[in-house]
Design brief:
By secondary structure, this protein is of the alpha/beta class. It has one domain: Aldolase class I (TIM Barrel, Alpha-Beta Barrel). The protein is built from ten helices and eight strands. Strands 1-2-3-4-5-6-7-8 form an eight-stranded parallel barrel, surrounded by seven helices. Strand 2, helix 2 and strand 3 form a beta-alpha-beta unit.
Length: about 220
């Protein structure tokens, strides 16, 4: 797979002890239009992480969708993932790049810090992520970020920008309008009653005609 653009629904997998269940949920997200998948696991069971990462890598390859691993460059290398996502406590960008090579995706969490994004781009990151923009079930203690941070970031960095944190279909449109190239979603996607339908709702927001309709819907409701 050549390095793709970062655009659209970015699915962040939930914690799941059962690999078959995790695969079934992720397959529904992919069928609904998810354009990237990130495997996020905080388990101490290295064997389970390896099993799940291998299985998810194969599934994402079937959909021709990039598979990213959170936190673990070595695991990404072992399963030949398409890239890795790093936070402030993870390996430096330069170390991850040395391990993974020039063709892999490296994404960086920048929280609410624009200067971190500028530095990440300078060091060779392929995308930067900001948030949490809204209260997050996955990370309830996450630092909050204002939506207009995305607009300012667009003026400072040239690499894609991902928004994360408490995102639902009803608030994602504003983040896209402010400059998000992708929205990273876990709870509102994988805890939805119908995962595929939830993914489709998010994916529609990235279609130009739907984006315009969503933007003007509120304005139309205010006309008297």
């Amino acid at each position: 797979m050549t390095r793709p653009g970062i655009l659209g629904l970015y699915a962040i997998t939930p914690e799941a002890a059962d690999t078959a269940s995790l695969l079934a949920m992720t397959q529904q997200a992919l069928a609904g239009g998810a354009r990237l998948v990130q495997y996020r696991s905080k388990t101490d069971d290295a064997a389970l992480r390896l099993e799940q990462a291998h299985s998810l890598a194969r599934l994402c390859a079937e959909f021709d969708v990039p598979f990213i691993i959170n936190d673990y460059p070595d695991l990404a290398l072992e399963v030949d993932a398409d890239g890795v996502h790093l936070g402030k406590r993870d390996a430096p960008i330069t170390e991850a790049r040395r391990k993974l090579g020039p063709g892999k995706i490296i994404g960086i969490s920048c929280y609410e810090r624009l200067e971190h994004a500028v530095e990440a781009e300078r060091q060779g990151a392929d995308y930067v992520a900001f948030g949490a923009f809204f209260a997050s079930v996955t990370k309830p203690d996450a630092v909050s970020a204002p939506a207009d941070l995305l607009r300012h970031a667009k003026q400072k960095v040239r690499i894609p920008i991902v928004a994360i944190g408490g995102i639902i279909p009803e608030n994602a449109g504003e983040l896209i309008r402010q400059g998000a190239d992708a929205v990273a979603v876990s709870n509102a996607l994988f805890n939805a009653r119908y995962i595929r339908s939830a993914a489709e709702r998010f994916s529609l927001l990235f279609k130009p005609d739907q984006h315009f309709i969503s933007h003007n819907h509120g304005l139309a409701n205010n006309v008297t």
